[in-house]
Amino acid sequence: MGLCLYLALMRHLNGAAFTFSVLDDVLMSVDTMHRREVCSLLKKEFPNTQFVLTTHDPVWLRHMKTEGLIGSRSGVQFRGWDIDRGPSHWDERDIWVEIDEHLQQNDVRAASALLRHYLEYISAELCHRLRAPVEFRGDGRYQLGQLLPAAVSRLRKLYKSAKEAASSWNQRDTVEEIDDRQTEFGKLVETSNVERWQINVAVHFNSWENLSPNDFRPVVNAFRDLVNGFACSACGGYLRVSPEQETPDSLRCSCGAINLNLGRKKA
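The chain above was modelled as a monomer; its predicted structure follows.
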């Protein structure tokens, strides 16, 4: 109610001049489904207003992205704050540069910690977008060895379902396209050895910091390529399952360059 009163008052007082607004964690007491409706309301009722929204709730951030309130690269997620340099945020466009800078300084410990932390963040996002099943934890603490293999397995199953669907509709070109995607993604997974984590979760990153910079660079490159394998080469957005609930009907990116049907033709 407070948010609605504020928006109504701004429209009444400023009219078309209401073009900028900062909202600081205004939906903490609002349930999940109504948060999604707020996204639709802001887009529909205030199309010419630029909103700056802050939150420490990752679910609300995902809702804003999913509903198109913000672009796939517009949301900034801070991961730390330094008095001298200010805030730092997760952004795959500079995270790899930062890791490389650590390696140039022969600081493998810092580079490996940053890579692991980033992979945990992005793996959780990929699991959410792909609706990957992950064993539930009441404390909400999921490790990299649980998240990334789940995302990899889920994308492979989605590609398989999409190929079966395309085959049922006799869409041979689409089947060949998916075959190529499966093959390329399989190579990225093999290079990163991510699937071996499911055999022994304890060995995946515990020894990273003991490597030399030259030994660790191939590890960084392998995981960077693997993460990019979840994204569309045209728009850079990560693939997602649509809809977010109920029976999945498509695997697509934000721009629509990748839009794979998951529904098989009924006999």
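The chain has a mean pLDDT of 84.
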